[in-house]
Design brief:
By secondary structure, the protein is mainly alpha-helical. It is 64% helix and 0% strand. The structure holds heme C.
Length: 107
């Protein structure tokens, strides 16, 4: 009986750990570094070279975010814009939400 209780306790503890890991969800920074950094730069400021090729690319700063809601960011990333290809087939919805949240921390 004691052994069974112990096993049950371990099971509950383990499922708790799994829940925490799942609640954290997609890693916005890892997704950004893998998919976005090459154009938008590590800190959300595009390099001069990228800016020359894509004059419309903006720095992720307070002015940029002031003009956009979270839904706008998700839409832009999902559907793409001009030279930026859509990410709807590359990233899952929760990954797009995570990366949209992450870019707000770059400003
Ligand atoms: C090939 C280069 C490239 C990559 C890779 C790229 N972007 Fe962009 N992104 C651009 C360019 C260029 C624009 C400006 C488009 C325009 O306004 O004409 C832009 C615009 C945006 C915008 C603004 C959209 C709007 O509402 O005006 C957001 C947000 C954004 N990118 C996020 C991301 C995120 C997040 C990723 C990675 C998942 C990413 N981008 C990957 C080039 C890129």
């Amino acid at each position: 009986m004691k052994k069974q209780l112990l096993a049950l306790g371990t099971l509950i503890a383990l499922s708790g750990i799994a829940n925490v890991a799942m609640a954290q969800g997609a890693d916005g920074k890892a997704i950004y570094d893998a998919n976005c950094k090459k154009c938008h730069g590590a800190t959300g400021a595009p390099s001069a070279g990228i800016k020359k090729m894509n004059p419309k690319i903006e720095t992720f700063d307070a002015a940029f975010f002031g003009k956009r809601t979270d839904a706008d960011l998700v839409k832009g990333i999902t559907e793409g814009k001009d030279k930026m290809k859509p990410f709807k087939d590359k990233l899952k919805a929760d990954e797009i939400a995570a990366v949209a949240k992450y870019i707000r921390t770059l400003k």
